[in-house]
């Protein structure tokens, strides 16, 4: 029996009506989630076929692809009258970096250390450089503690340095390790969290995600019916697109700094459930479209089967492992 074609189609139609995705952003979601594990290459006609059911017409898609090529995300190859697009090195790096936050699990126990970036007001730091640095640090989850001072409790030690080098201002800012002094009568660093990050707004986004996909999660979890491939693929893309838009703006703070009822945990568990319930069927549709020309469409990378910590199935097997 097929649930789900009707349930998934209704959900897809509702999501496309209430919050239609932007063509370029949805294209990035598809490239990272669906195509990168299969080698990262696709014919333009196949990309159009995959995204048209999601409200992206050919004109918008061509414009989006052109911009992604110009930005270094994609590389274009002409084969007669056909165009093949594949992830360029920059696209591969950006996709891999984002994947850590999109599919990763909860943060490990926090040891109390902070990474702090200080941008002195003196020196040669222009307004444009400071604005660009602030944008890059906030994208990586840093919060602004004070003007010119940014901090994060769980950032990788080289994240700040990489950002500074990429902006060619490595010699214009300080990168420090910090922690609260034991016994000092002072405001704990962690108490600044509500001021440095919009946790209330982020929590509401997670709750909206739960409202959008919660009933579908229960329906799919029953396992009594299977999703049809085309509907499963469309829903998987919208699920990941909405999840990516939220989680890439989540600073991913330690659990000890979050409210005890933090909805991000429930939302991640729901995303994992729905994602893996749709995965096998969605891969069938993807192969039927992107794999029909052969050649550049590769077998699924085993790394993809570790997303969200791996699937939970009654048999205990990962999708595609049979």
Automatic annotation (TrEMBL):
Residues 108-180 form the Transcriptional repressor PaaX-like central Cas2-like domain. It holds the Pfam family PaaX_C. Residues 197-287 form the Transcriptional repressor PaaX-like C-terminal domain. GO terms for biological process: DNA-templated transcription. It comes from the Bacteria. Residues 22-90 form the Transcriptional repressor PaaX-like N-terminal domain. InterPro entries: PaaX-like_central, PaaX-like_N, PaaX_C, PaaX_trns_reg, WH-like_DNA-bd_sf. PANTHER family: PHENYLACETIC ACID REGULATOR-RELATED TRANSCRIPTIONAL REPRESSOR, TRANSCRIPTIONAL REPRESSOR PAAX. This is Phenylacetic acid degradation operon negative regulatory protein PaaX. The lineage of its organism: Bacteria, Pseudomonadati, Pseudomonadota, Betaproteobacteria, Burkholderiales.
């Amino acid at each position: 029996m097929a649930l789900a074609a009707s349930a998934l189609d209704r959900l897809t139609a509702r999501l496309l009506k209430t919050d239609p995705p932007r063509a370029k952003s949805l294209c990035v979601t598809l490239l990272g989630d669906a195509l990168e594990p299969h080698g990262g290459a696709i014919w333009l006609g196949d990309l159009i076929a995959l995204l048209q059911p999601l409200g992206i017409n050919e004109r918008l898609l061509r414009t989006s692809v052109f911009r992604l090529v110009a930005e270094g995300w994609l590389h274009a190859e002409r084969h007669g009258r056909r165009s093949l697009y594949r992830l360029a090195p920059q696209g591969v790096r950006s996709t891999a970096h984002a994947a850590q936050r999109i599919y990763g699990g909860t943060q490990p126990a926090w040891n109390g250390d902070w990474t702090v970036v200080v941008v002195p007001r003196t020196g040669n730091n222009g307004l444009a450089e400071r604005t660009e640095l602030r944008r890059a640090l906030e994208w990586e989850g840093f919060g602004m503690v004070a003007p010119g001072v940014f901090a994060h409790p769980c950032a990788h030690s080289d994240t700040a340095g990489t950002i500074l080098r990429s902006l060619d201002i490595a010699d214009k800012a300080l990168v420090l390790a910090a922690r609260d002094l034991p016994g000092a009568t002072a405001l704990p660093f962690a108490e600044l969290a509500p001021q440095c990050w919009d946790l209330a707004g982020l929590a509401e986004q997670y709750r909206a995600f739960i409202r959008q996909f919660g009933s579908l999660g229960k329906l799919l979890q029953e396992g009594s019916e299977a999703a049809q491939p085309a509907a499963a693929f469309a829903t998987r893309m919208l699920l990941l697109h909405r999840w990516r838009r939220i989680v890439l703006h989540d600073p991913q703070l330690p659990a000890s700094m979050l409210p005890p009822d933090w909805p991000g945990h429930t939302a991640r568990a729901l995303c994992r459930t729905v994602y893996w319930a749709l995965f096998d069927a969605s891969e069938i549709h993807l192969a039927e479209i992107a794999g029909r020309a052969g050649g550049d469409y590769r077998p699924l990378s085993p790394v993809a089967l570790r997303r969200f910590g791996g699937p939970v199935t009654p048999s205990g097997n990962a999708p595609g492992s049979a």
